[in-house]
Amino acid sequence: MTTASESSRRGEPSHAFTGISDQNQLNPLFARAGEATDFPLNMLPPGESLPETAYQVVHDEAMLDGNSRLNLATFVGTWMDPHADRLYSETADKNMVDKDEYPQTAAIETRCWKMIATLWNAPDAENAIGTSTIGSSEACMLGGLALKRRWQLARRAAGRSTDKPNLILSSAVQVCWEKFCNYWDVEPRYVPISAEHQCLDGHDLEKYVDENTIGVVAIMGVTYTGVYEPVAKIAEALDRIQADTGLDIPIHVDGASGGMIAPFLQPDLAWDFRVERVASISTSAHKYGLVYPGLGWVVWRTVEDLPKELVFDVTYLGGHMPSFALNFSRPGAQVLLQYYLFLRLGWDGYYKVQKASQDVAVYLAGEIAKMPAFDLWNDGTDIPVFAWQLTKGYTDKWNLYHLSERLRLKGWLIPAYPMPDDLADVVVQRIVVRNGLSRNLAESLVVDIQEAVAYLDALETPMPTEGLVTTFTH
Ligand SMILES: Cc1ncc(COP(=O)(O)O)c(C=O)c1O
Predict the structure, then answer these.
(1) pTM
(2) pLDDT tens, 413-457?
(3) Mean pLDDT across the stretch 311-326?
(4) Which residues' Cβ are closer than 6 Å to ligand 1?
(5) 3 state SS for the chain
(6) In the chain, what are the domains?
(7) Whose CA is nearest to atom 16 of ligand 1?
(8) If you measure from the C-alpha of residue 96 to the centroid of ligand 1, how many angstroms do you get, rounded to a whole number?
């Protein structure tokens, strides 16, 4: 027998221990004489089973996952069209790193990042360099590593110490940047957000920057709220710092979401390689790039921005292959899916899909703004993501965690969580609008939020706060 606490110790989510046993059982309807109907959860079964049986067991268990269509917490795409599905199943065997066996997939990867380099206004896409990755986290790590190595090379050439690199970031960065700093021994210098400066906007930058600064991260689409950090303003602050001190500090733009929104919805906003200080940009193709999970992109303005010492020449798969990645083998199919979408949608198609999401986000933000219980943090006009907080003094009977729980009863996943430093006492709730959240679904959601608020408001005693889930993994 397994208790709830044992299950949570072994890292399974709470619903996974409802069976209270260490066995995975096959529904008798699918069982055939002579085959196992019980499978150990954490040990390799001693014998074989029929493919139909194993399929049914895994299929049934996957059913316990949430309904991705109602998941307004994630940025990650969960739907592609039937042609993409066909392509996916035809190409699921391709290994991205094996450019000798799959030269066409490799050529398509290059075409894709060149298209993206042009979309991001690289001065000369032929002289830019890029790669696909498994997601934004790997893409950010590669961007960060290039910053660190460029700084080290310059410092060594000048006979200066390379012991104490630091990176300037908003306190609202995604966890991948904390990992980068931790894994590669770079001191993170967080600029706290505040009511006055709700994101990194270049203020006080001179207090954080010094000769050991490898770069500044600007986020296009802050994970907590969806707002764009003003890349051009940050660059201007760095220009002033350079004029005063001589320090020439590059920017990496983390465009995990905005990298595939801004080129279509805000084409006049200069956030990309039009800003000269921007050395590299990353994005998640599996977010607003509209591809299934497992793909990101990173592009450097010029080949000189990616130190060649970081690029390995791999020969053991046959031929010479440049490799700059944290992984070796990884799926190649997503790259083909990205290319399929580029051909299928083109600029116009991407514009229409992103605009439809933005329209729904702006509609939802507008409806939530009308409710006296809520104060909007932003309105969904950057990436189609927005957050709100409880109006000050509105109630002490319930909070946004309670609202999140009530909405879950209707199947909606809309997380509430505290903001980062210096606003950690502010709790917000966030909606991420992705392709597939139609206006009709959004209208149902508004009704569900209104009903949940009416229910909570009508309570005679406050909601209990014991056992509330008050954390959220961004
Ligand atoms: C701003 C930002 N950077 C990086 C990431 C990490 O992206 P991925 O999940 O593709 O690794 C995210 C994910 O939400 C993000 O919002």
Answers:
(1) 0.91
(2) 999 999 999 999 999 999 999 998 999 999 999 999 999 999 999
(3) 77
(4) 75, 135-137, 140, 174, 176, 219, 221, 223, 254, 256-257, 284, 296, 474
(5) CCCHHHHHHCCCCHHHHCCCCCEEECCHHHCCCCCCCEEECCCCCCCCCCHHHHHHHHHHHHCCCCCHHHECCCCCCCCCCHHHHHHHHHHCCCECCCCCCCHHHHHHHHHHHHHHHHHCCCCCHHHCEEEEECCHHHHHHHHHHHHHHHHHHHHHHCCCCCCCCEEEEECCCCHHHHHHHHHCCCEEEEECCCCCCCCCCCCCHHHCCCCCEEEEEEEECCCCCCCECCHHHHHHHHHHHHHHHCCCCCEEEECCCHHHCHHHHCCCCCCCCCCCCEEEEEEECCCCCCCCCCCEEEEECCHHHCCHHHCEEECCCCCCEEECCCCCCCECHHHHHHHHHHHHHHHHHHHHHHHHHHHHHHHHHHHHHHCCCEEECCCCCCCCEEEEEECCCCCCCCCHHHHHHHHHHCCCECCEEECCCCCCCCEEEEEECCCCCCHHHHHHHHHHHHHHHHHHHCCCCCCCCCCCCCCCCC
(6) 4-65 (no CATH), 85-341 (3.40.640.10), 355-457 (3.90.1150.160)
(7) 223
(8) 21
